Amino acid sequence: MNLHARYRRARTPLTLIATAAVATGLFATSVGPASAAKTAASKADKPTVVLVHGAFADSSSWNGVIERLKEEGYPVVAAANPLRSLSKDAASVKDLLATIDGPVILVGHSYGGAVISNAAYGSDKVKALVYANGFAPDKGESANELASKFEGSVIGDVLRPVPITNPDGSKDVDLYIDQSKFHQAFGADVPAKTAGLMAVTQRPGTGTALNEPSGEPAWKAIPSWALVGTNDKIIPRELQVYMAERANAHIKEIDSSHAVTVSHPDAVTDIIEKAARTVR
C-alpha cells in the first residue's frame, strides 16, 4: 500500500467524525427548546437600548442597568464614548447607530447627554432620548458653559488637568477628577470601595470636548425623558431641571449623586423602560 492510500484510509474516520459532529450541531440547533425562540421573538419586539457614558466614567458604569435591561429582554449596546470632542464623539455614536436594526432608545449620562443630543439629530431610528443626570445643551451651548449657569457644581474645584499633545501636534488637556475628591464629588451615595475603583478607572474628557458648542439638538424633535439627581454635585439639580423643562422632557427626580447609573440602576432602568414603551 502506498503512502497516499494509507493516508486516505487514516483520515476517513476523522472525516466521518467531523461530519457527524457538524450534523449533530445542526440537529441540536434545529430542535432547540421553544423557549429560545420565544426569547428571540421577545427581543425582536423591543427597541435596542444604546447607553452612552460621560466624562470621568466608562461603559462599566452601566453594568447594573445593563443587567436589568437584559433580564427584561432588551437588546443593549454600551457605546465606548471617545471623550475627545463633542462633534467627533457624536459622530462615533451616530456611526454605531447606523449598524443597529430597528428602533433605538438612546440614553446619555452626564456629558453623554450632550453626545446623544447631537448624535440623534436628524435620525429616524432614535425614538426616544433619556438623560440620566445628563447635559441637554441647546445649539451653541457647551457642557462647561452650562455647568456654570447655576450655583452648586463643584467640578471646577476637583479637576486635575493633564496636558496632552494630539496626533496632529496640537495641544489640549485631559481632565480627570482628583482621586481623593472623587467619592464626595462624583458618587457620594456609592460605597467607598466602589467609588475608589471608579476613581482609578475614570476616563478623562478633553478640554475641547467639554468646551465645544453643541450643534442643533435632537431633543427638539425627539421625545425625551430625564432622571434628575437632586444631590448631584457635578450637574446641580436646578440646571438639570432647567434643561429638562426646556426640552419638554418627562421628568423624574431621585435622591442621588451624579453617579446615578451606579447607585440607582433600578431607577435608571425604570425610566428607560418608560421611554421604550412609547415605541412598542
Automatic annotation (TrEMBL):
Residues 1-36 form the signal peptide. SUPFAM superfamilies: alpha/beta-Hydrolases. Residues 49-270 form the AB hydrolase-1 domain. InterPro entries: AB_hydrolase_1 (IPR000073), AB_hydrolase_fold (IPR029058), Sec-Metab_Biosynth_Hydrolase (IPR052897). It holds the Pfam family Abhydrolase_6. Keywords: Hydrolase, Signal. GO terms for molecular function: hydrolase activity. The keyword Transmembrane does not apply. This is Alpha/beta hydrolase. It comes from Streptomyces chromofuscus.
